[in-house]
Design brief:
The complex is a heterotrimer. Chain A is mostly helical. Chain A is built from eleven helices and four strands, in the order H-H-H-H-E-E-E-H-H-H-H-E-H-H-H. Classes of the chains: A mainly alpha, B mainly alpha, C alpha/beta. At the B-C interface, helix 2, strand 5, helix 11, helix 12 and helix 13 of B face helix 1, helix 3 and helix 4 of C.
């Protein structure tokens, strides 16, 4: 039971970091960035090649490189595909994001082939850790730790810094934010940059925990993390964390005690039940309609 | 007088759609019977018709009722697997009879699923509604992955998540085998049947849209509170659109399933739902003609792109993004409009010379 | 309205452009046939002496994009090597190869099959994966097109279809052979099985393994499943560990297997692992720490480290051309092309020559069926010597048991 719980929290932590990217972008640009999962995959490939024999970078540098590449990628995607559609309907943006997701996946397929790559073990020398008689893999602990650190930094960033406050202002009311002298376009680009940088971190963690890397690696975790973001209340940073961890724990427990085939159905079932009782997610803001 | 002219444009539009479908049928049927068609295109005629049904039925929800649904393929799979069971149970009957009964039962079961799912879904709004439809689509896929159906002389046996529980006699045949899906499906769909179904569905949708009910649905879409204060029940009308759309997707699924000898639940995942949504958005929200044309073009497009071999899906993605940018970005659109205007002027000038 | 018009024009233009491409494609097709006409003359000259002549249009269908792309690409590359070899001989018999993508989807696979028909395909080496294969084989059976599938191993692929043959083992054989092997060599007392129940291949082997294990009295203490998208195996491996299994049977492909080995290692669980032919390829995953696979046993018809000349030649050419070690799927693709060639030669020798140029797929189908079901016919390949087929279309060849030692296969 304890093992499953910790494994669930670890998986959930990875979901949470991915969900942060969704939730921040949604909060500000009000769009579902379906290509986010594929940015994760790109991050994984960048780190993989950085650490492979040809380049031979140490793990922290590889992570840094992945973050830089994904950040640039995120900003580029935003500029090329999403910015021109700022005033378009949300559906048009959604379809563009899906197109972008196909584009990234198929580019990866052409560039790096379909064969799965085994992600190198970053914690090779670390032994499994005994924890009340349960054996926990080191990656699981790193994922949980990374999640907590990221969450704290982001919360401080959005509440304490000027740029962070600008971000919240834009998500609250774009028009008013512009009037207050906030550069909306810059803020949105910055959000994409942060979200994509986080995607790189999530990509490296995901591939370390489940070391197989394919062009489709990011799709399913992307959808799950998106679910987690909605679960916690989309647009809310602590919501993404809670949603992600709950989702991971439910998934692992369902797989262990009920049925591995129905695990995903149970996860989505819980989501539906939560949304029925709290229509904007666990920590989402209740919006009251004005007549 | 004004009212009359309005009605006539609506019916003109409706007849345009019937015309398109009938022309589609006549042209391709004659090509098939004279043998002037590539087998690639011939093999796609039934799926094209099915995707057209999927597109117009999703447009009823997304365009007319104004709710973003990301799980439309789920209803298609309900109809598809129902049709597989029904057609196998009717193994002795004629192909035509089995097909008609399969479509009707498939549509009915999909309608029931749509109604049940609509109860929680339609209480939500906007993106939350969208994610819940996505969730239901995935749940349907997961449940079908655990479904085992067998048939023997005693009748149809069902089992859930445990193929051994089918308890079949020695002569029994498994028709749906969990995640491995159905095999040995009777291939009884015909192009003509698919087109007739498409026509019936278009008639239903267009008459619904132009009826009192249809106007109520659109009123709720445009301003829910105003409509509510006029005494319209949003839940009732949204539910109507959602259920009808689900039934149609089920019927499309039935025709689709009976065109292939095998079928797996995974076929109807999130990606298929998105595919159909792309038809609707590219064709124009609420525009049935657009849905028909977009479905036709976009189903054939990846096949035509086969010449690009490995670059095929990449080209598809780029086309998708470019079309969205061009049709939705004011600046680009303006530029292209002026380009066409200039072109037109040049042509007309040239004509005068 | 303008907006819609515009989008229509745009898509319209796109389609026109595509149609344009289609035309050029057709033209190159014609050029191809004129070339063939040249070979036809030589063919006519050579006919009558039991020789095989002409150009065969061989189609391959498999997933070249999407999640299962690795299998399709391996088969196509393997078949390409074989075709290149055959054509490089410069003999009167040549093969034109065309591969079509099916994205591991039945609908797309049938489309791909029709595309090949438009090209004038005469025989098909495919399809690669099981579900699409069932859909395509139904069409091919009605149209009378010969199919030799390199890797679709479910019995439903060949059931009731006289024109469909398998080059790989049918699933049931592997399961019972594995159980027998584990029992005979007393490898374990408590066995755990982890299998993919969304996969006909994996489930098929599991079912026969279980039946055979029960018959032999082999105790199965843990049975867990996963599906295609699973990457987290903590539950499955944990279950095997807590039930004290000393051998884990993995009737699965090597990608999930690599994850299972990694998971077991990370929690310090070290049972014996026993795999089937899908496990082959685990050593070739780029970046995989092969020490994790140390001691893994598997039954496989193909091993890239075999020292016979056939295998050495194939592995060398494949590695040179594609920069990677061929997997079992590549070997299957390679053997498919050669098996079809061998069958045609067999027929030609018996019937005083055969010219395949322009021969209809139906005609060729009957010829190939008659040869493949001929008890005298056997084919040699890198996945087995003296392969013979029964009337159901299933192949009969010997699996080899190997164990991984110091990162290479060693015969057991």
């Amino acid at each position: 039971m304890l093992v499953h719980l910790i494994n669930g929290i670890s998986l959930g932590s990875i979901y949470a970091i991915i969900a942060l990217g969704y939730t921040m972008v949604y909060g500000i640009a009000k769009m579902l960035n379906f290509a986010h999962g594929d940015v994760i995959m790109i991050g994984g490939y960048v780190a993989f090649f950085a650490m492979s024999e040809g380049a031979g970078l140490p793990a922290p540098l590889a992570l840094l490189l992945a973050i830089i590449v994904c950040t640039i990628l995120g900003i580029t995607i935003e500029r090329l595909a999403y910015k021109p559609l700022r005033s378009a309907t949300s559906l048009a943006v959604l379809i563009t994001a899906i197109g972008m997701s196909y584009f990234l996946q198929n580019s990866a397929l052409l560039l790096w082939g379909a064969n799965p790559k085994a992600f190198p073990d970053m914690f090779k020398n670390a032994e499994a850790i005994e924890f009340f008689g349960a054996k926990i893999s080191p990656v699981a602990l790193v994922a949980i730790f990374a999640n907590i650190v990221i969450m704290v930094i982001l919360t401080l960033f959005t509440t304490r810094t000027k740029v962070g406050k600008a971000m919240r202002a834009v998500s609250e009311d774009k028009g008013a934010a512009t009037l207050m002298g906030i550069n909306v376009n810059f803020t949105i680009s910055l959000t994409f940059a942060i979200g994509s940088g986080l995607a790189a971190v999530a990509g490296v963690l995901l591939c370390s925990a489940y070391p197989t890397l394919m062009p489709t690696t990011g799709s399913l975790p992307g959808i799950k993390a998106f679910t987690a973001a909605v679960f916690g209340g989309i647009g809310s940073i602590p919501g993404a964390m809670i949603g992600g961890i709950l989702l991971g724990v439910i998934e692992i427990l369902a797989r262990a005690y009920i049925s591995s085939e129905l695990a995903d159905a149970i996860v989505f079932g819980v989501l539906i039940v939560v949304l029925i009782f709290r229509p904007t997610g666990l920590l989402g803001k209740q919006i009251h309609e004005k007549v | 007088m004004k009212k009359f002219s309005k009605a006539s444009t609506a019916s003109k539009k409706a007849f345009l759609n019937y015309g398109i479908v009938i022309a589609f049928f006549v042209i391709f049927q004659s090509l098939v019977s004279t043998g002037n068609i590539t087998s690639a295109l011939k093999g796609q005629l039934i799926p094209i018709a099915c995707y057209m049904i999927m597109a117009v039925s999703l447009n009823l929800v997304v365009g007319i009722s104004g709710e973003l649904s990301l799980g439309h393929a789920g209803f298609m799979s309900v109809g598809a697997f129902t049709a597989v069971i029904v057609s196998s149970a009717m193994a002795g009957s004629s192909d035509k009879g089995s097909l008609i009964v399969s479509i009707i039962v498939g549509a009915l079961i999909a309608a029931i699923a749509g109604f049940l799912i609509g109860i929680p879904v339609l209480r939500l709004n906007g993106d939350y509604l969208a994610i819940v439809t996505l969730a239901f689509g995935e749940i349907i896929k997961n449940i079908l992955n655990c479904l085992y159906v067998g048939i023997d002389e005693k009748g149809v046996h069902f089992a859930f998540n445990n193929p051994a529980a089918l308890a079949m006699s020695a002569e029994g045949k498994v028709i749906i085998n969990g995640p491995m899906g159905a095999v040995g499906i009777r291939k009884i769909s015909t192009f003509a049947a698919a087109i007739i179904l498409l026509l019936i569905i278009l008639i239903i949708i267009q008459n619904l849209v132009n009826s009192r009910t249809g106007r109520a649905i659109m009123a709720i879409r445009d301003n829910r509170i105003a409509a509510e204060s006029m005494g319209l029940s949003p839940m009732k009308y949204k539910m109507l659109a959602f259920t009808v759309s689900a039934a149609m997707a089920g019927a499309a699924g039935a025709v689709y399933a009976l065109n292939y000898s095998t079928l797996v639940p995974k076929k109807f995942d999130f990606n298929t739902s998105i595919l159909v949504l792309v038809f609707v958005v590219l064709g124009g929200i609420g525009n049935m003609t657009g849905s028909l044309l977009a479905a036709g073009v976009l189903v054939v497009l990846p096949e035509l792109l086969r010449k690009f071999s490995d670059y095929r899906m990449l080209v598809y993605a780029i086309v998708l993004i470019l079309v969205m940018l061009v049709t939705n970005n004011e600046k680009l659109k303006g530029k292209i409009d002026t380009f066409f205007k200039k072109l037109r002027m040049k042509i007309s000038k040239g004509g005068r010379k | 309205m303008k907006k819609k018009l515009l989008s229509l024009i745009l898509t319209g233009a796109m389609v026109m452009a595509m149609a344009g491409c289609g035309n050029t494609g057709a033209e190159t097709g014609t050029v191809g046939t004129t070339e063939n006409a040249g070979t036809e003359e030589t063919a006519a000259a050579a006919a009558g002496d039991g020789a095989l002549t002409g150009t065969l249009k061989l189609g391959v269908i498999g997933p070249l994009t999407g999640g299962a792309a690795i299998y399709g690409n391996a088969v196509v590359n393997g078949a390409q090597i074989a075709v290149d070899e055959i054509n490089a001989l410069g003999g009167a018999f040549q093969i034109e190869l065309q591969a079509q993508d099916d994205e591991h989807d039945a609908e797309k696979s049938v489309n791909a099959y029709h595309q090949l028909q438009d090209w004038g395909v005469q025989a098909i080496a495919g399809t690669v994966t099981t579900t699409p294969c069932i859909a395509v084989s139904a069409e091919a059976n009605a149209d009378r097109v010969f199919m030799l599938t390199p890797s679709a191993s479910a019995t439903t692929v060949t059931d009731g279809k006289d024109n469909v043959f398998q080059l790989c083992f049918a699933d049931p054989n592997q399961g019972s052979a594995s159980a027998q092997y584990i029992f005979d060599n007393q490898l374990a007392t408590k066995v755990a099985v982890i299998y993919n129940n969304a996969d006909a291949y994996s489930t098929g082997i599991y079912q026969t393994f279980k039946a055979k294990a029960e018959e032999l009295g082999l105790e199965i203490v843990s049975e867990t499943t996963f599906t295609d998208d699973t990457t987290d195996f903590s539950v499955q491996v944990g279950d095997a560990q807590s039930n004290g299994a000393d051998l884990v049977f993995l009737p699965i492909y090597y990608t999930p297997a690599s994850l299972i080995l990694k998971q077991a290692d990370s929690i310090g669980y070290a049972p014996k692992f026993f795999g089937v032919d899908g496990m082959d390829g685990i050593l070739t995953i780029e970046g995989f720490d092969t020490s994790l696979a140390e001691g893994v046993m598997l039954l496989t018809p193909f091993s890239a480290d075999a020292t016979d000349d056939l295998t050495k030649n194939f592995v060398e050419k494949f590695t040179e051309k594609f920069g990677e070690v061929p997997s079992q799927f590549a070997a299957d693709g390679y053997d498919c092309a050669y098996a079809i060639k061998a069958a045609l030669e067999f027929y030609a020798a018996k019937n005083g020559g055969l010219d395949v140029t322009g021969m209809s797929a139906e005609e060729l189908c009957e010829i190939l069926i008659s040869v493949f079901t001929d008890p005298e016919f056997s084919a040699d390949g890198v996945t087995g010597l003296g392969m013979v087929w029964d009337a159901n279309g299933q192949v009969n060849k010997e699996p080899k048991a190997v164990v991984i030692k110091d990162g290479v296969y060693v015969g057991m």
